[in-house]
Every structure is written in structure tokens, then in C-alpha cells.
Amino acid sequence: LLDGCGRGVASIDRADAQLALPSLLTGTVHVTDLERTGVEGDLQIDRGGQLDVVRLFATEPDPEAPPFEGLPVDLRFDAIRVREGHVRLTGGGLPDVEVDDLSVDAAFFGSGLTYDLRDVALRGTLVSPESGPITADGFFVWHDAGIGDMDLSVRALDNQVSVAGFVRDLSDGAAPVDL
């Protein structure tokens, strides 16, 4: 995948998937199992704080086009497994973050404007800015361009951050989230 400037953001040479064909008749793309070894990601945050992955799917705004109403079909992934991944995050005035030996297990459901990532289990080795293990466990729901319900715990080196609750529109004040 390339960003708007033609820079490589993610690469996958080959992925193995099992698809439940009968679900297509009901408007659902149902992948029972998706496994990939050797995923590479090179993500950048621009000056405005936006991750370049967002720009992968951006198009020129059309003033006459109706607003995005969500996915045209439901997407369901019962099991997603990534092994031997490598991800780098740079920019945004923050220190570069690099994770190697990345392993991720999760389930995903997307419908309309709601994207639900469940059963997340991430393991890896933080290479930069410091060296040591990194893990993440939990779930989060992204709805209409904002994070909704979540319960996520991230551990890196000797630090742990846990977030649980429901995040409403952050532009109008504080959200009821426990940190």
C-alpha cells in the first residue's frame, strides 16, 4: 500500500485466508481465518497529527458527493493472525517507535460506520526508542470517526497503560474514560 505521496506504508507478499462463501448472499464478507507472516509497516504522522494510513483511502473531496455512509458490505474476520511483523512509526514531533518480532491475534467486524476489533493480543519487541517487550490486550470499537467502547491494556518495558470506558466526541469536553 502506498500513501498519497507514493511512499510505501505497508507490504504483504502473501496472505492465506479462508472465506465463507454463503455469507456473500447476505451482504457479508466473512473470512473465517486470515494468517500472514512477515508484515512490514512504515507509518508516519504528519504535522497535523494525522496518520498516513488515513490518507491511503482519501480521495479528492467532491462537493456534490453525499457524505460517506460506511462500508457497503459487512466485513467479518473470525481470526486474524500476524506473525514476524515489523512496524515503525515516525513523525508528529514524537520519538520514533519501532517494534520487531510482532505477533498479533484479533477478530474484526465492520458494519457501516462501526469497526469492532476484539480479542486483541499483541506481542512484540520494542526496538526504539528503548529496547524491551511490548504487549497489548483487549478490544476497542471505532464508530463514525471516533473511538467508542474500549478496554485496552498496553505494557511497554516497565510501564502499563490501561484504558476502559466509552469515549464520546472529545471536541466538546472530557470523556468518561478510566486511565
- Share of residues in strands: over 45%
- This entry's quaternary arrangement is single chain
Number of DSSP strands?
11
Radius of gyration: 18 Å
In terms of structural class, how would the helical and strand content be classed?
Answer: mainly beta
Low-pLDDT runs of 5+ residues are none
What is the mean predicted local confidence, pLDDT?
77
Overall shape = globular
Helix count? 1
Helix/strand order, N-terminal first: EEEEHEEEEEEE
Instruction: Indicate the percent of residues in helices.
Output: under 10%
Q: Strands, helices and their partners?
A:
Layout: E1 10-11, E2 16-19, E3 28-37, E4 40-45, H1 52-56, E5 74-91, E6 97-111, E7 114-128, E8 132-143, E9 146-156, E10 159-166, E11 177-178
